[in-house]
Amino acid sequence: MIRRLIVSCFLCLCSLATYSQIVKTKLIDNGGNGPYKAIAVSEKTLPDFVVYRPENLKKAVKKEGTLPILVFANGACANTSITHEKVLSEIASHGYIVVAIGALKMSNDENWASTEAQMLVDAMDWVVNQNENESGDYYQRLDLSKIAAGGQSCGGAQVMAVAGDARIKTYMMFNSGMGDMTMAGASTESLALVHGSVIYIVGGEEDIATNNARLDYERINHVPVTFANMLDGNHGGTFNEQYGGAFARMALHWLDWQLKGAADQSAVFLESDLSDFKNWSMDTKNFTN
C-alpha cells in the first residue's frame, strides 16, 4: 500500500511538473474537429505568444509521431491571434503545434499593438529549446525538420521578411501577397529568399490581397507554389467560422501533404480536386509530382 502511494504521488508530481509552465488555457470550438482535443495555452517561458496544441500531447505523439509545427503571424501584424484562433485551434486538433504571435486573450477587446517579424524567429527558437528541455511538456515531441511559417494579411509580409530562415520548410500566405509593395520589412525581393513550397490562400476579387498574391505566384519560379482562391472569401476568409471553415480545411490539406507526407491530400492541389471546396479555384506550378 505504501509503495502504491509513493508511485501515485510520483506520477502526480510528474504531471504537475509537465504542466507547470502553463499560465492559463482557453478552449476554442470545444477543442476542434480533429482527433486530438486542442487547447490554447499561455506558456510561462513564452508570454507574448499563444501555443495551440493537442491537450493530450502523449496521445497525439503516440499516434502521429513527433508533431510538426506552424509559427503564425497575425493580420495587421497585430500582437493577438484571437481573430485567427478558430483556424489555428482546428489545425492543432489534427496533430500540430501552432505558435502564434501575441499573448493569449480570453475575449476580443480590440486593443492591439504592432509587432516585428523577428517574433517568428523567436517562436522557432523557443520550439527548438523546448524540444531539448527534459523537464518540459514538449521534450522530444516536436519534429524540427517540419516547420511551416504562416501569416494573414500583414502577417504574411512578416513571413516573407524572415523567409530566409533555413528551418522553414513551407510557407502559408493567407489573404496576403507582396506584389510591388514594401511591408513589415519585406518586399518583392523577399520572394527570392523562399526555399520551400508556398501556398497562397486568398478570398477572391473582394480580397485586397488577391492581386498581389497573384503577382507573387507568377513571379515565383524556383520553388513549388500554389494559388488557392476562395472566390467569395473576401479578405477575412473563413477565420470567423466554426472550426475555421474552408480556410482551415485547405490549410490542413496542405500541411498534411507538405509536413506529414500524406500523398492522398495532394489531389486538391495537383489535380484541382475541389469537390469539398465549393466556389474555389486552384493553380499550381513547379511541382515535380
Automatic annotation (TrEMBL):
Range of residues in the leader sequence: 1-20
**Full protein name:** Alpha/beta hydrolase
Record GO terms (molecular function): hydrolase activity
Q: Which InterPro entries match?
A: AB_hydrolase_fold, Chlorophyllase-like
Which keywords does this Swiss-Prot/TrEMBL entry list? Hydrolase, Signal
Organism per entry: Reichenbachiella ulvae
Q: Which domain of life is it from?
A: Bacteria
